[in-house]
User: Fold these one by one.
Assistant:
Number 1:
Amino acid sequence: MMRKLFIYTFLLLISFVSRASMVLIPMDDTSQVNHLKAYGITYWTLDKDYKVSWLLNYRGGSFLLPDREEIRRECKIRGVSFEIITDGEANAILDEISSPSQNKETVILEKAPKIAVYSPPGKQPWDDAVTMVLTYAEIPFTTIYDEEVLNDALLLYDWLHLHHEDFTGQYGKFFGAYRNAPWYLEQKREAEELAQRLGYSKVSEEKMAVADKIRDYVVGGGFMFAMCSATDTFDIALAAEDVDICEPMFDGDPSEPNYQSKIDYNNSFAFKNFILERSPMVYEFSDIDTTNDRKIPFEQDYFTLMEYSAKWDPVPTMLCQNHTQLVKGFMGQTTAYRADRVKSNVLVMGMNKLNNEARYIHGTKGKGMFTFYGGHDPEDYQHRVGDAPTVLDLHPNSPGYRLILNNVLFPAARKKKQKT
């Protein structure tokens, strides 16, 4: 009797082992019907305290999840393609990835990062591509602004996003075209009232204090992702600390004489040797941005993602995961960066060689990291004030938006020492 029970138990165990399985979320071009929501499933799984394997350079950067009924159900509800594979098949994939001959790597994602989006009250969701894609992918985030930053709320978050913001105190350089527009006058009034309430005599001084707090957050180990004008204005503000670069219509008094010579490029994160745009009538902050010099036809406006060694350089490899290396370009107040204005210690991960411009860059500062991504909305080529919002249901496989979501998941990765 005991012998029969042992045999029965053994056969049950063998049967269970043979049926043990994993959920593979493919991220290649042909298998995945909704790349963007796939990131949301991965985040949701991490938030349920499961670990996830990110398979770098395997089928477009696929995800390997534990097989649970709730995970299968969530994939079906959100319309995300998935495959059920046996443990044996999963181990075969992991063995293939670990081979020294393969430019692939497995990165363990351990914990859902806490996400903060820096955005003023009253801003519409479509004003910010990251807010839009986080909402679409169903990834939770908290909106914060100057008061929270100055009160050290950043310490609560693993990941911070900055978008269409002006840290120089020049109100986005909209003065030339919109100085009499009601929305511009209202935003200027609100910014001045906020600065006064927080104890600053000028908006530029208050924004400088915010930029300092964000710098300290990154240096202390935080991860910052910025797009559009938040990228160059953040760096300009840091380089121009204690230098008045604002004209009277912005802060009520003249700028400092010869202020260009007082810029300290050692203080900036990504950019060097830039020349500031002095005229308040010009919709530009400096010569970092290439928008006014671009002569690329719409049909040819693409940038190429660089390829890295997954085993030696997992960080940029993670940030560049995609189902294509060629990404459609898009414009913004800050569209792209002149290559000769990018510091030599900053990685250029996406480049348009026709125009010698960097579109997607990454670097380290202290214990933290930052990524700058030029342009406003990856699926709205030339977004203008008042344009209708992008409908992401029409772009579920957007390579440009995938780059944003790579950055969202990046802080979840188990940290490995970078070898180069």
Note: The two ends are 63 Å apart (CA to CA).
Number 2:
Amino acid sequence: MGDRWHGWGTDAGLLVLTFLPAVLSQPYVDASGPAWVSLTVYEAVGVVVLLLRRRVPATAFVAGFGALLAALVWSAGEGAKLSPLVFLPLAVLLYNLGHRGASWRRTVSAVLGVAVLGVAGLWLNRMTTDSSDFRGGVDVLAALAPMPLAWVMGYAARTRHALLAAAEQRAADARRAQALEAARAAQRERTRIAGEMHDVVAHSLTLLVVHAETLRARGGELPDWARAQVDGLAAAGRQSSGELRDLLRMLRDPADAVPLRPAPDLAELDTLADGHRATGGPVELTMDLAPEAVPGAVRLAGYRVVQEALVNARRHAPGAPVRVTVASVAGQLRCEVVNGPAARRGTTGAGIGLGLVSMNHRVGALGGDLTTGPTGDGGFRVVATMPLECAGD
């Protein structure tokens, strides 16, 4: 709507600047009735022609020249003169022809047509006017002589616009090429990281699972507490192996990121808690909602938060009691994990120190908040809140 109003405003201003000067100067040239009739009819036709100049530039130029020629010839035949400013609309039409006349064939045809009309008008003027004062001569030639400059200015403006458009297109092509190269570089880096992870992590994890399964096969030779530990180790290893395979596939080709196995969610928190208990850490799990009512992305994020919090508890506060609470509060999923002080010395140097950072990024991506910090009794507390209505599956 703004562009339309701008176009109408431009046309209105152009009509005033083009036609009003001739009306204001006409009384000083010839105030007779035939002069005013000729000027009025010509300007009425000229207004329509100028309004159509954008759609049909060549036709508008020929029609405008024809209307001007007819007004000059008729008024001369009646013994009247028009103001020299009646040539202003012709300059505008010539500029428009140079600026918008994309077809050289139509431009040349319009110029030839105007030449034919000019010769015909000159002949009619000679035939219908006896007095030399009303025959076209040097005055008409002087008014028409600068007109080609209007076409040159219009053509120059069109050329400049074409150069600007070409420059913008080249810039857009360069941006697309740069984005494509960045995507290729990112894909190469993902492939390299996937290869490194496969060579380093996958090999060690597979070896760990093999050893755990070997111990399970000889479970009769192990004490009861060791069998439970080995079962938990084998289950965790198998789960981690499956998730690692999905991650490597996503890194190698994001288009093939469909996981081979379902992503874990809140429905598996009981299994997660059992695995923590198997390591000697008591867990109290309270879940006051149905996992199916939570969007998929939030279910996965909530599971990962609890998983990472339990891992941190095992690492830094082994044997400490842990309380896990998952509930829906004011349209948000609230996951709280609180562990008490360590029952024995924690593992030194375990992990890479990015667990809390990863949790914060995951929760923040869903528009949630993560709060972590020590408790007054020497434990640690993790609280994650994520909106339920803004997340998608």
Note: The first strand starts at residue 283 and ends at 287.
Number 3:
Amino acid sequence: MRLRLLLLALGTFAVGTDSMVMAGILDGIAGDLGVSVSAAGQLVSVFALSYALLAPVLATLTARWDRRRLLLTAMGVFTVANALSALAPDYGTLLATRVLAAAGAAAYTPTASAVATALAPPERRGRALATVLGGMTVATALGVPVGAYLGSEDWRLTMWLVAALGVLAFAGLALLMRGLPAPTAGAPGLRERLAPLRDRRVLAGAATTLTFFLAFNSVYIYLATAVRPATDGDQGRLSLILLATGIASVAGSWLGGRLVDRLGVRTVLLAGSVAAGLAFAALPWLSRSLPGALVYAVTAPLAGWAVGVALPHRMASIAPANAPLLISLNSSALYLGIASAGAVGSGAMAALGERWFPLVSAGLAAVAWGLSFTTTARVRAERVVAAGEAGARVRVRA
């Protein structure tokens, strides 16, 4: 099982690198294709929005597909799209290839997460999810810096790097990912599969994911600005802070999986939201010095990615038979949060200034905590009532 999870994680590593590295090569794209940097920045937004919109649609349309076939198709589309991005002769073509890459990613990541939960026993599903999603956090610490370095010479080399990662993941899946659990026999139709969208628990879970990742990324996107007093414009200091952020992200994903299995989803959601919210609220003071900035760079992603593991676990547990669709909805909410964070962070800076704008993220983290507290408490109460009713029925029969 461990090898299979690592292969799935290799695919999410490729997806994570692709989705996050673009921000580091926008200047090169703009100069090569003759567009403004702001226009090049739309490539990031288009990828995120396409992913968000396509993930639940593709999960529904491919519900009856063999899981191995779906993983290979998704990774194949993703890999070809990145190769086409590397060859794109103009901005319009590049924009279209980003939509195609998002389609492959939107089909792959939720499926890989659902397969991970199917492969693992119930008591280890948190760790299985953490391993697969850990590919995305490792991308922040390794894939993005390497891709950005290559992109400083030629942005097309970055796209070729992502395509090469896709080829490796595809080959591993093709050779070793066999005998996966088949989709449920007599799988429900489209209407039945969309039924969870009317479930308030599903909508609350998606809203929690959207709000939390909006809070997290509204600071992360502008982290260089937020910690400028600590770095004083020194690139070496900023690189150290970013390195700490990447390592803490990986550690947070690893820790989150183990805490979910040991303490439960609700505890991780509530504690992680509090820790992240306090880090956002303290950043205006922590950013005054390098040690303080490093405290933030460790605390926020450690808590944030622990929550990031708990959120899809929570969604999948609502209706396990529909886990791929529910995890795809969680992924959609996550990418909508990322897509919106640039505008929210920019608006927060305009309203509060470069020092105080993280307070908006602290407020959003508090909203995410409130959603987690009220909705997970309701789920737990419903289970208690259901258990009581079942017990009463047993006593009546007796």
Note: Residues 381-398 have pLDDT under 50 and may be disordered.
